[in-house]
Design brief:
It is built from eleven helices and 18 strands. It is of the alpha/beta class. The strands form three sheets. Strands 3, 5, 6, 9, 10, 17 and 18 form a seven-stranded mixed sheet that branches. Helix 4 crosses helix 5.
Length: about 350
């Protein structure tokens, strides 16, 4: 038996329960978790913004040590330190054939599987976003694990599985920030902090962090923000005032709310780029008129998993970590146990702190 955080149904609170985890079958790997990040996407699963089969063990940002492997698994061995990849590409669909592996049509196929059972009654459990990282141990498909690069502490490596890949990719793959450009980052949570650090690494000349909480200014500036703006109806005007009345070259929205997306777009200069990372609900409608789309000439784009290929990007991120340019621990504002996840969700709803990290 292992302890895990179970979502019994959409809209229900998480339950910490014992589960029965089978040994890995063909093409599977069993992993003992070292740490798991509490991401806003997990919260979005609990309230139905994103849907997966339930009951499910949540958690998709994690790292740990391989305990055992199933038949046919040759690329990884017991004892190896691994990062969980919650969105593995199939290599066969149309998106994969175009090299756009972050849009793989089959990336979440495993989320519908039954991977474990409740110890109390034997009921089926699904693996959340494929990997069920909110548990002491998990069993995943072999393509859901990637080796932890040398020089990255195992606990910190959990953050590479979502927050850092997303923030880094938003800057380097989606917005393609160039040296000297100006950037605004909306939302100073785990992904936002990773985005700010990545903008600094890209050589942005000005990085404006935007959040509703004054308490996050210190976090944002430590990550590399040069300016901090408390979100209000005047945010776009304030950002234009900080950039010679032009607006920033790039705005990255990490919140997933219609008003924030619209404000991020308005704070971008004429001809600039706005990248939306935040996951919003279907009720969040963003509107534009045809004339302003023509006049401003801005680019508005979505960004899935940072438009990243984890296999290629993890070694690059590790080099930034080893060189001291990327500080993974700076994203974390709380180390918790499994029992602390509900409180971490409450903090996210209240806009408090950066990333909470479950440490096993």
């Amino acid at each position: 038996m292992v302890r895990a955080a179970v979502l019994p149904a959409v809209g229900s609170p998480l339950e910490i329960a014992d589960i029965d985890l089978p040994e890995p079958g063909p093409g599977q790997v069993r992993v003992k978790l070292a740490a798991a990040g509490v991401c806003h996407s997990d919260l979005s699963l609990t309230d139905g913004t994103m849907r997966v089969p339930v009951p499910a063990v949540l958690g998709h940002e994690g790292a740990g040590t391989v305990v055992s492997v199933g038949e046919g698994v040759t690329h990884i061995a017991p004892g190896a330190a691994v990062v969980l990849n919650w969105a593995p590409s199939c290599g066969r669909c149309h998106a994969c054939s175009l090299g756009e592996v972050w849009l793989c049509a089959n990336a979440l196929a495993g989320a519908g599987d039954v991977y474990a059972h409740r110890s109390s009654d034997g009921s089926d459990l699904h693996p959340g976003l494929n990997v069920a990282a909110f548990a002491e141990e998990t069993v995943v498909a072999a393509n859901c694990v990637l080796p932890v690069p040398d020089g990255v502490p195992l606990t910190d490596a959990a953050l590479l599985g979502c927050a850092v890949l997303t923030g880094y990719g938003a800057i380097h793959h989606s917005a393609r920030v160039r040296t000297g450009e100006t950037v605004a980052v909306y939302g100073v949570g785990g992904v936002g902090l990773a985005t700010i650090q990545s903008a600094r690494i890209a050589g942005a000349s000005k990085i404006v962090a935007v959040d509703v909480s004054p308490e996050k200014e210190e976090l944002a500036r430590a990550a590399g923000a040069t300016d901090y703006v408390i979100a209000s109806e005047n945010t776009a005007r304030e950002i234009r005032g900080l950039t010679g009345k032009q607006g920033v070259d790039v705005a990255v929205e990490c919140v997933g709310r219609a008003v924030t997306i619209r404000t991020a777009w308005e704070s971008t200069r004429r001809g600039g780029r706005t990248t939306v990372v935040g996951i919003g609900g279907k009720d969040q409608q963003v509107t534009f008129n045809a004339l302003e789309l023509f006049h401003w000439g801005r680019t508005l784009s979505g960004c899935v998993y940072g438009n990243s290929d984890p296999a290629e990007d993890l070694p690059v991120l590790a080099e930034h970590v080893r060189a001291g340019r990327l500080d993974l621990s700076a994203l974390v504002t709380g180390h918790i146990s499994l029992d602390g996840i509900p409180a971490a969700f409450d903090n996210m709803v209240a806009g408090k702190g950066g990333r909470a990290l479950v440490v096993f």
